[in-house]
Amino acid sequence: GSGSGRPRMETQSEFFFCSGAATEVLKVGSSQLSGEEVLLLLIPGNPGVVGFYESFLLTLHGMLGRPVWAVSHAGHCAPPDSMDLVEGRSGSNGAAAARRDVFGLDGQIQHKLAFIRDRVPRGTRLVLVGHSIGCYMILEMMRRSPELEVLKAVLLFPTIERMAQSPQGKVMTPVLCQLRYLAYLPLFLLSLLPQLNSMYLGGQEMRMVQERDNVTIQKNLDRLIFYYGATDHWCPVSYFQDMRRDFPHGDIRLCERGVRHAFVLDAGQDVAQMVAAWIGGSLTA
What is the pTM of this model? Predict the structure, then answer.
């Protein structure tokens, strides 16, 4: 426990451009990797602000002793004053970021793959931890880059299907889809307001996260752990039951603790302790 007198771990925050967009990485444990070790990498929900996950990351590192990093979504951070949200906002790089739609759902997935390619040494074995839309991104990352060395992927409160049909989606879809005009906003407006980027991504989630990717799930089933909330308005329990029916051999769990979808707000440490217990065995191999 925390009474063991170990020095209090600190998080380190780094800002840089990835896919032409401002990105923050929060690191606990080694900030430099040799390429030999296991890295736990968190892909957040929306808003993809890594600061929310601090106690979760610290607890995970404290229990497993491995480096734990969290990468923000493109443009979901408040970079230092010297740094715009888009690289060379007035120049060609900003235009390139707009063309790639880096703030959209597909762009965010490409952004995570670019981050791993650019910032994680080759040969690093990964444990991916996703929250909410981060789970959808992880399945897509595994589909698009099967060469990634993923030991395990833990999908927490996974919004991987039928988002617009979920109870929360029914409330949010009309709001977010009225924001379609965000797609036509000049890039400099998006690049000034991280909150706009979050809403823009949300609108795309409602339109694009429809059918569950059963092929990718089946292909990677032995590496995946799903954790559904008992009262999650983005993933009703019926989605959990459908998963259990469709993947009887999968590791698919239903929360018994009443943890809410936005678990980092009050249960970050509890969930981290559970995750550590689930994956501890696969790290020693």
Answer: 0.86
If you search the block for the tokens 């998963």, which residue do you land on? 243
Residue 5: per-residue pLDDT = 43
Q: Which residues pair with 273 in a beta bridge?
A: none
pLDDT of residue 90: 53
Which one is catalytic: 132, 166, 191, 198? 132
CA distance 44 to 180: 23
Domains of the chain from N-terminus onward:
12-78+98-161+210-282 (3.40.50.1820)
Told to judge if 232 belongs to the known catalytic residues of this protein, a careful annotator would answer yes
Annotated catalytic residue, options 61, 72, 131, 232: 232
CA dihedral sign of residues 164, 214, 138, 188: negative
The yes-or-no answer on residue 270 being catalytic is: no
Average pLDDT over residues 13-18: 92
Count of beta carbons in the 10 Å neighbourhood of residue 193? 14
